[in-house]
Amino acid sequence: MKSKAFWLTQLLAIACMLAVACIPTVYADGHEMGEEMEMEEAEESSTSGWFRIDTDGLATQFWFGASHSLGSISLDSDIYVVDTFGEFDIGLGIPVVDSDDMSLSLLPMVGIGFDYTAPNGPSSLIAPQLFTYLTAGSIYFESWIQGFFNSPFDEEAGDALYTRDFILYSVNDTVAIGPQVEVTLDLGDDGGLGSLIAGGRLNLGYGENNTLGLFVGYETQKEDEETGLTGRMTFVRTW
C-alpha cells in the first residue's frame, strides 16, 4: 500500500509540473488567437457606413448607405425612403486622386424606386447618377447629377434631370460655409427649366462623425403668390 501511495504521489507531482509548464504555451496560443481576431476585425472595418436625414420640399427623407472596399475601388449602396416611396441605389466608388494635398473621387450609380401605395412593381428608374467629391485643403466641393425616368412605368408620369452642386470653405474644424445651386430640368415635349434654386449652405460639426447642414435658397421658378424662400435641413452621421 505504501508503495502504491508513493508512486501515486509521484505521478500527481509530475502531472502538476507538466500542467504548470504548459501554462505559458496556452497563454501564447490564446494571445496569438486574440491577435488573429483583431486582424480579422480590422479587415472587417474596411466597410464604412452612413445615415442621413433631409427635410425639404419633399418632406422628411431617410437615407442609409455603406461602402465596401474592393481593393482600390469600393462597392457603394444605399436606400432612400420618403413617405411610401423607397429607392435602392448601387454603384462603384472610384478614387481619381488621393494625396496629402487633394482627394477626388467619383461615384457612378444606378437606382430603382418603388411606390408602395400600390403593388405595381417599380415606379422609377434613377439613372444615370454621378456623384463627385473633391477635397483640397480647406475647400470641399460636392456635385450630384441624377436622372429620374418615371414614364417607362407610367405614361402620364414625367421625367427629369436633377443636379445639386455646392462648394464650401472650412473656417475651422467645426464650421464650413459656401454657395449652393440646385437645378431641375423637366424632360419630354413639355420640358424645360422646372426649378432653379440658388443660395448658401452652412455645415456644422456636431461631434465626431456628425454633421448638421443648413441650406437657405431662393427658388427662381416660383409662383406669383410665393416668396421663393426655400431650403433644406440635413443631418449626417458616418462610421
List the defining traits of the structure above.
2 domains; 12 strands; Porin; alpha+beta; 1 helix; disordered N terminus; 12-stranded antiparallel barrel; single chain; 239 residues
Description:
This protein is an alpha+beta fold. The chain has two domains: 45 residues; 192 residues, monomeric porin ompg (Porin), CATH 2.40.160.40. It is built from one helix and twelve strands; from the N terminus they run αββββββββββββ. The chain has a twelve-stranded antiparallel β-barrel with strand order 1-2-3-4-5-6-7-8-9-10-11-12. The longest helix has 43 residues. It is globular, with a radius of gyration of 29 Å. The N terminus is likely disordered.
The tally of structural domains comes to 2
Q: So what's the overall shape?
A: globular
Give the oligomeric state: single chain
Q: Give the N-to-C terminal Cα separation.
A: 70 Å
Number of strands: 12
Strand order of the largest sheet: 1-2-3-4-5-6-7-8-9-10-11-12
Let me know the average pLDDT.
87
One letter per element, helices H and strands E, the order comes to: HEEEEEEEEEEEE
In CATH terms, the superfamily of the largest domain is monomeric porin ompg
The CATH class designation of the largest domain is Mainly Beta
What radius of gyration results from the CA coordinates? 29 Å
Q: In CATH terms, what is the fold-level topology of the largest domain?
A: Porin
Gross CATH architecture of the largest domain: Beta Barrel
Beta-strand portion reads over 45%
**Biggest β-sheet description:** 12 strands, antiparallel, barrel
Number of helices: 1
Show unreliable segments: 1-28
Helix content: 10-25%
Class based on secondary structure composition and strand pairing: alpha+beta
